[in-house]
């Protein structure tokens, strides 16, 4: 029977130690998570500034619900675009320095919405090999030729661009890579986009709110101003502590997305309550230099603590601090031993990362303390 194939495939995943298991949290997002009645020190969320449970955001949600209700009732292009959505888009554009911004329900929807709207059959997308899965899916949906260059290899990218005869070209990259924590060579990517007349689309899911002046993102960090060929994607469920995403670009690009981006048009608009919470979050991000400085202190403390140990961090100055382990069974055992000590660090395995590069993905947050990081370091040193 047709469903028996799924049973065999699930058994195969289990044998390869690739089965994903959910844990149900019995607490709000923060430095600790209650799972099955046990409080665990958590290094697994993307709540980089510790805003997900901030009372200012909770109050904004309550006040907005009383004024605007809980649902939008329709697509943005029909009747679902409310004043909080409009205010948020204008605030986001101003914050990152773009002409306009468009608010999407999720980062995944933003990514799969932008690439197929800019390129299609006969065009080519040049993508970093370690791009997020949503960017890979976006290229597949576009039906453009998918050319992948080695991670951050600008020489290989330029060779591909110079040899391409595609009608339209698009360079596609994470700004901060979600499983490695390193920053893309953004200025070099833009120079190549200029040289070969290509779009440059950057997904700054893990840089927005954390990098740049007042958390304005990776473009600001690299001192790269907006340009008509530049399309910037920011996620609002990580450092911003809420949910959703936005695309910031020139007025022409945003207008075209509003007319043609299927994941924007053919879905109910996000609740106005979320937009109101994000407006409050933007203010906290802008005023969050102390949180960002504390985060950098934690990153340095972790690096110093694991120096001269068996645990080798990948080079990263961001909140994403991966510890390379290698094989699936090995990383699962280390994660389990940490859990026995009351510490939750997720084991990341293929297909999220390449085969043979399974790792612990330590996510630091401004909600963590120096003592929390010391506890993690001590636990890792105990594990043989």
From TrEMBL:
Keyword Cell inner membrane (UniProt): no
Pathway: Cofactor biosynthesis; biotin biosynthesis
Keyword Acyltransferase carried by entry: yes
Assembly and binders: Homodimer.
Aminotransferase class I/classII large domain segment(s): 40-380
Keyword list, A-Z: Acyltransferase, Biotin biosynthesis, Pyridoxal phosphate, Transferase
Gene Ontology MF terms in the entry: 8-amino-7-oxononanoate synthase activity; pyridoxal phosphate binding
Top-level taxonomic group: Bacteria
GO biological process: biotin biosynthetic process
Cofactor needs: pyridoxal 5'-phosphate
EC number(s) recorded for this UniProt protein: 2.3.1.47
Sequence positions that bind substrate: 20, 132, 352
UniProt family annotation: Belongs to the class-II pyridoxal-phosphate-dependent aminotransferase family. BioF subfamily.
Reaction(s) this enzyme catalyzes, per UniProt: 6-carboxyhexanoyl-[ACP] + L-alanine + H(+) = (8S)-8-amino-7-oxononanoate + holo-[ACP] + CO2
Class of the enzyme per the UniProt entry, highest EC level: transferase
N6-(pyridoxal phosphate)lysine found at: 238
NCBIfam families referenced in this protein's UniProt entry, alphabetically: bioF
Lineage: Bacteria, Pseudomonadati, Pseudomonadota, Betaproteobacteria, Burkholderiales
Protein name stated in the entry: 8-amino-7-oxononanoate synthase
